[in-house]
Amino acid sequence: METQILPITDESLILASKILNGGGLIGMPTETVYGLAAIGTMGEAVKKIYEVKGRPADNPLICHVHKDYDLNKLVKIEQEYVYRLIEKFIPGPLTMVFYGKGVISEEATCGGDTLAVRIPSHEGCQRFLKFIDQPIVAPSANLSKHTSPVTARHVYNDLNGKIPLILDGGKCSGGIESTVLDVTGKVPRILRAGLITKEMITSVCGACEVAEHKEGDKVRSPGVKYRHYRPNCETALYSEEEYGEVIKLYREYERLGKKPFVMCGGKIKQKFVGLNLLDLGDTPEEIAFNLYDKLLEGEKLADIIIAVAMPDEKGVNMGIMNRLKKSCG
Predict the structure, then answer these.
(1) What does pTM read for this prediction?
(2) Cβ(246)–Cβ(306) below 8 Å
(3) How far apart are CA 106 and CA 46, in angstroms?
């Protein structure tokens, strides 16, 4: 199979529609990461997502729709605060988990009674979703457990020959996956941290909980059960206070004739001047934007990526630390 990367045009959207309605898969951009898309009502097509990615069959998928789509066709909106969240954050990097109406295939929900739904803000993705005008299920467009793709070329590097088309919408502006929020209860509960933070949700809803995932829990969200986001090289993760351990490990790899890289952002970068450095940027938003790009860059350059953790887990840092622990911990 030949994999094409095409800009989003009328012609490429016609091709994408033909592939999807024929039961195939394509790569699509969003503002967070690129997704591997299938029509959510087509069970056999959804199965292909799991096969292409090598994704565990009990890891549910997120459904994507355009901003004018009637969510009531897919889910039961039972909490009043949902409408305030929609007004404030949608379209955007927020996925909400509702009780579903059984429209989306059970392959996508893993037989569960809930459905995760997102309305991306990426202009090209909105154009694509509006053109298809059907619910699209899509996890990240990479091989399972590998670092998520934030460019069309990243998708190509993992899935070349496995899918016929990647719609190129440029580099993703967010850089980490959406916040996943359980909105089935009286208080919204974060299942996966992201760019829409606990503090932001609390300001709209008055309260917000963070789920503690335990072994044996029913999985309602992707990204909580399995190890994810890992680059194809060795990794380690240290706190800022473990500066001495970072240097010790770095020098040990140098002594063995191997190439170590330190990956960090913020003020702590100044401590590693003169070393091989994967610079994540200065602000939490910059760090989130650069994280996957630097992990994918680093796997080509380094024998080991030594990541330094964020100073706290407040705001966007919660989502960054979630990804760092899964990718480098």
Answers:
(1) 0.93
(2) yes
(3) 9
User: How is the beta sheet containing 260-264 ordered, strand by strand?
Assistant: 234-238, 304-308, 260-264, 277-279
Alpha helices in 64-160 (DSSP H): 81-89, 106-109, 123-132, 152-159
How far is residue 79 from each of residues 13, 83, 108, 194, measured CA to CA in Å? 36, 8, 24, 22
**pLDDT tens-digit profile, the chain (329 residues):** 899 999 999 999 999 999 999 999 999 999 999 999 999 999 999 999 999 999 988 899 999 999 999 999 999 999 999 999 999 999 999 999 999 999 999 999 999 999 999 999 999 999 999 999 999 999 999 999 999 999 999 999 999 999 999 999 999 999 899 999 999 999 999 999 999 999 999 999 999 999 986 555 555 555 555 567 899 999 999 999 999 999 999 999 999 999 999 999 999 999 999 999 999 999 999 999 999 999 999 999 999 999 999 989 999 999 999 999 999 98
Amino acid letter, 5: I
Q: Which residues pair with 308 in a beta bridge?
A: 238
Domains of the chain: 4-210 (3.90.870.10), 234-328 (3.40.50.11030)
How far apart CA 109 and CA 99 sit, in angstroms, is: 11
Helix (H) or strand (E) holding 326: helix 316-328
